[in-house]
Design brief:
Layout lengths: L1 E3 L12 H16 L4 E6 L5 E15 L5 H8 L3 E3 L4 E14 L11 H19 L3 E7 L2 H7 L7 E8 L4 E9 L1
Parallel strand pairs: 5-6
Antiparallel strand pairs: 1-2, 2-3, 3-5, 4-5, 6-8, 7-8
């Protein structure tokens, strides 16, 4: 498997049209503006298996949503702001994350393998510039939460956000390096 950053046209193979739209219309523009970088994962025959988009973004984490142990660990990477009653953090964001569902099981990449590839990139960046937190947002679907919160991926819910534009509630999940 190879991870690549350049974006090129992708045929209709992704499960959700909004993700395909992102790859076709936004990924290149966001990279040009240095807002985020989308990494494409190919097999040995240059067939797209999956992709993920990474960036760095400030966020707030409400302390009362975390255990005392997690609050203590978070305080090593964040500043508690009394007025907001929340921790102000600058963290890595997995902004897009998806697989090509056009492949049969034998050629497909697992979600855990894809997450490992994303964290390989993040760990290289972390060694260069620091940081200790990664977060993402996802819709409140049992299968997604089970995947992100499994023993391998270890993300934990720390908040939620409602998108007026999409009319969707997104859960915010956090993981320490």
């Amino acid at each position: 498997m190879e991870v690549s950053s350049p974006i090129f046209p992708v045929r209709r193979i992704l499960k959700y049209p909004e993700i395909e739209n992102f790859l076709h219309n936004n990924a290149v523009e966001f990279a040009k503006k240095k807002m985020s970088i989308t990494h494409l994962v190919f097999d040995d025959h240059a067939q797209l298996l999956a992709y993920f988009t990474l960036t760095h973004k400030p966020s707030y984490v409400e302390g009362d949503l975390l255990s005392k142990t997690r609050q203590k660990k978070l305080s090593m990477h964040a500043r508690f702001e009394e007025t907001a009653q929340a921790y102000s953090v600058s963290a890595y964001l997995i902004a897009q994350f998806g697989k090509n569902y056009g492949w049969k099981e034998g050629k497909a990449i697992s979600g855990d393998q894809l997450m490992d590839l994303a964290f390989d990139v993040l760990e290289r960046v972390q060694h260069q510039i620091g940081g200790g937190l990664v977060f993402l947002e996802c819709e409140e679907h049992e299968a997604l939460l089970k995947f992100y919160q499994n023993e391998h991926n270890r993300f934990r819910i720390f908040g939620e956000r409602y998108s007026e534009r999409d009319q969707v509630k997104y859960l915010k999940l956090l993981r320490f390096f």
